[in-house]
Amino acid sequence: MAEQPKPGQPRPIPPRRPLTLRDVSERSGVSEMTVSRVLRNRGDVSEPTRQKVLLAARDLGYVPNRIAGALASQRVNLVGVVIPSLSNQVFPEVLQGISDVLEESGLQTVIGVTRYSLAREEEVLYEMLSWRPSGIIVAGLEHSDASRAMLAAAGIPVVEIMDVNGTPVDSMVGISHHLAGRRMAQTILTAGYRRIGFLGTKMPDDHRARKRLEGFEAALCEAGLTVEARDFYDGGSALQKGREMTAALLQRHPDLDFIYCSNDMIGAGGLLHCLEQGIDVPGRIGLAGFNAIELIQGLPRRLATMDSCRREIGRRAAEIIAAGRAGQARSGQVIELEPAILPGDTIRRA
Amino acid sequence: MAEQPKPGQPRPIPPRRPLTLRDVSERSGVSEMTVSRVLRNRGDVSEPTRQKVLLAARDLGYVPNRIAGALASQRVNLVGVVIPSLSNQVFPEVLQGISDVLEESGLQTVIGVTRYSLAREEEVLYEMLSWRPSGIIVAGLEHSDASRAMLAAAGIPVVEIMDVNGTPVDSMVGISHHLAGRRMAQTILTAGYRRIGFLGTKMPDDHRARKRLEGFEAALCEAGLTVEARDFYDGGSALQKGREMTAALLQRHPDLDFIYCSNDMIGAGGLLHCLEQGIDVPGRIGLAGFNAIELIQGLPRRLATMDSCRREIGRRAAEIIAAGRAGQARSGQVIELEPAILPGDTIRRA
DNA sequence: CTGAAAGCGCTAACAT
DNA sequence: ATGTTAGCGCTTTCAG
């Protein structure tokens, strides 16, 4: 009497124990094994049986238990993706490229975030590997020894992405940041700039930014020049910091004629500052960033930058994993993409 | 030496059976059960035995199999988080709040992205529930019937976030977007603006943006006013679109004195356009966005906006899940946060 | 086409 | 403090 559900509440009472194949089996009068076959579309099952099972499963609201399934079949449709951050716009774009491809292959992306810490990366990898994924994609080539050992021992495809300046555990897909820095330096020098400053982030573990700066300085050095002034920031809005740092840098070094920024947000801040101060860009001073983020499209002037091929990197990496899973042993691949310079309106035409 | 892999050629992954507890057991001479205890820090184990096990596990590079562990213990330290997008800056911030709290409780965040599609949300939820997570956090209150049924039947804590204008499956944490729109309208009216336009995104499934506009219009209506002109955009850089749409809107309706934007990026684009055109902001025209994203800190003028309490929402939602797991049945909670108005410099002082 | 039996690798619950 | 015994819910394998 009191147990009777009210007419207005046709929803099934949440079961105390999650449903199992057996429940569907009993409800449909079909053996567990055949139910399993129907639910996985595997093997031949007669149409009437099939319908009975599907109906019962839907009525009950059965959701299969992948934990049991994975244990029994020794197969998991998960691919781990390890990146430093989600707030950097750049990484969601890589992820997009990855999941575009993985989805087609029926693989599920699992994301892990390291906050640019190798120690945390190690934990995240351990956690991921404990779920026995079909593959791992990890940003960067710098890892702890333990992380590298884990990855090597996992016996699954591993793709390190975004950078090719180093030795991969298995495969790698990315650009040379050393070369990117070098190319930007050459472009700047060709345009006639000579007194060059740098603004970056205080991230000791952002190895890609570090490599860009190294390549940049190497190219300047070959031309007999150096980076005359540099500043690094830590935390806060990158756009705002770009403004402040540009102001501070130009105050200290009024004769700089170019500022190379480690990313587009800093560069955008610098650009806004200069325009507000009535400083002639790119005449009096030139600016460049890195990444070609979408934001720069809406700025008063198009910031010079470089395409970091994020989407493409994601896609190619995912293809390696998907192919590896399809039986084709595609390990040990090295794919280097070409980062194009987008000169925009903040570098003088040569 | 014939086995030596040529560079560039697919080198086969060393065939290896993943390590099991038994391997560690044999290597250390300790029973599987005790090894398991050591690795989980559970039960009393003598220090010498403990060390032997730890050493063996490390030597072998053993990574436990959580699939088996979860099946046996009927416990999974995973919490599913379902959000529409990762490129909207806003969602990574919610995620940050969530994982801050979950990490402390030893829970792992698993992210699913719906691309603002209810059909895809349903798939993502199904996929997640099949891993039997300890809880689910999902953005928004609008779901397919099947999704709602799944969530209700899962028998785990479910928290719907970011919105409180509706009926939750279980708990909800968010702000009233209806109220947010209304409050902004009141602020604008108090400041004396009367000819008001709106710019938004063409997202039929962004229910929160829709509710804000509804609340906004309701408040205008009560004051005997209406939104005189509106435009919606689709795809592309939001900042750039904000510029273009503002230009177009002001061209068509030169006598507008305020533009309310469905988000800060659009508003920022509008602001940049106005400043470039020498239009007096906030004198000639006022502007407002929504979300209080970090970006607006670096703009030439601080855009008026509203704090959407993202971090806090994430934290509170995660706390409900963590508490629910700790045995305290905290279901059916409703937490409404207060979205503060940040008037910035783009609304006249009353 | 369908079913019965035997695990997958681990842990809960008891022994000892 | 350590070992033994049963499964967890599913899939593989092999028989009907």
From TrEMBL, chains A, B:
Residues 19-73 form the HTH lacI-type domain. GO terms for molecular function: DNA-binding transcription factor activity; transcription cis-regulatory region binding. InterPro entries: HTH_LacI, Lambda_DNA-bd_dom_sf, Peripla_BP/Lac1_sug-bd_dom, Peripla_BP_I. Residues 7-17 have a biased composition (Pro residues). It holds the Pfam family LacI. Keywords: DNA-binding, Transcription, Transcription regulation. The keyword Transcription regulation applies. This is LacI family DNA-binding transcriptional regulator. The keyword Electron transport does not apply. Residues 1-29 are annotated as: Disordered.
